[in-house]
Amino acid sequence: MLRIGTMNDTNTTYDTAVRDADFDDFADSATAVTSDASDADEIATTLAQWWQTNARDLPWRFGRTTPWGVLVSEVMSQQTQMGRVVPYWTAWMDRWPDAAALADAPKSDVITAWGRLGYPRRALRLQECAHVIAYDYADELPHTYDELLALPGIGDYTASAVLSFAFGERIAVVDTNIRRVLSRAFVGVESLGGSASPAERALAKRLLPDDDSAKCRRFDRPSVVWNQAVMELGATVCTAKSPLCEACPIAGKCAFLRNGRPGLGQRRTRPRQRFQGTDRQVRGLVLNALRGLPDGETVLDRKSVERLWKDHVQLDKCIASLDEDGLIEILPGGGVRLPV
């Protein structure tokens, strides 16, 4: 049986644990959690078994890549579905298998390889990160949370995910999917999105299984399996708008389902902005045109640029923003190219 860390040190219920964590959003709710620690152990065991048979076979999982490969997968997967990431990740790792290989690569190659993953500034930040790893850490990913967090473009989630998934460290990983599953299963209410609250982080830490001194591969350690299984459940079963409760392995222990799924799909954040006609679309058109130039050509002349978008005021604003972000260079005469 898997042991849940802090919760097994006491005989409190989750309702008490949530209040102790100053879970302001939930403590006064009539639907507060009543599951005890034995339920948490059972859920952890059930999810570990579910993970072994249902986890998607992604190339950076199960110890099949380096810590650098894990980091690349996490950066690419931010706001991008993992299924879309696989071909880009595979090509990227073939070309730049370690930080040193990426560090001094031409920026134009880096932006082109990023393709249609979206938010292309991530590509340049990843290259900045690679430069620090290559030259300050002798091409080895640092092993501490503070050192990872200090790398360019690396935030709390990515630092925690790398520590857990790449190094097998016992640390709570908190992303949108994990927050949703924990809130629903253990608290019985909907997770409303937005930034993770201190209370949500405290709950994630309380539920993290102990690793003891388990003699197993780092990716098989209980805390690592827990982080990945909960995240996978949120991505494939316990989804935001249409959860597949009938297929959920922990449905029988889920407080949210037991409470009648109150507020299903409610969000704290604003609705997602439409893409058509936005600056994001225009920026993408410019970058895609540059990536698609014939071999040997590197410059998109002004006339070709103007044909990309009818509203030239918006077009020029987007070109200026791409230049400011370091994603393109504006040439005399109004032509543009990827940075060299």
TrEMBL record:
Obligatory cofactor(s): [4Fe-4S] cluster
CDD domains: ENDO3c
Residues annotated as domain HhH-GPD: 76-236
One Pfam family linked to the record: EndIII_4Fe-2S
Matching InterPro entries: DNA_glycosylase (IPR011257), Endonuclease3_FeS-loop_motif (IPR003651), Endouclease-III_FeS-bd_BS (IPR004035), HhH-GPD_domain (IPR003265), HhH_base_excis_C (IPR023170), HhH_motif (IPR000445), MIG/MutY (IPR044298)
GO-annotated biological processes: base-excision repair; mismatch repair
Top-rank EC class of the record's enzyme: hydrolase
GO MF terms, alphabetically ordered: 4 iron, 4 sulfur cluster binding; 8-oxo-7,8-dihydroguanine DNA N-glycosylase activity; adenine/guanine mispair binding; metal ion binding; oxidized purine DNA binding; purine-specific mismatch base pair DNA N-glycosylase activity
Record field: catalytic activity: Hydrolyzes free adenine bases from 7,8-dihydro-8-oxoguanine:adenine mismatched double-stranded DNA, leaving an apurinic site
EC number: 3.2.2.31
Alphabetical list of Gene3D superfamilies matching this protein: Helix-hairpin-Helix base-excision DNA repair enzymes (C-terminal), Hypothetical protein, domain 2
PROSITE patterns xref list: ENDONUCLEASE_III_1
Keywords, ordered alphabetically: 4Fe-4S, DNA damage, DNA repair, Glycosidase, Hydrolase, Iron, Iron-sulfur, Metal-binding
Family recorded in the similarity comment: Belongs to the Nth/MutY family.
Protein name in the entry: Adenine DNA glycosylase
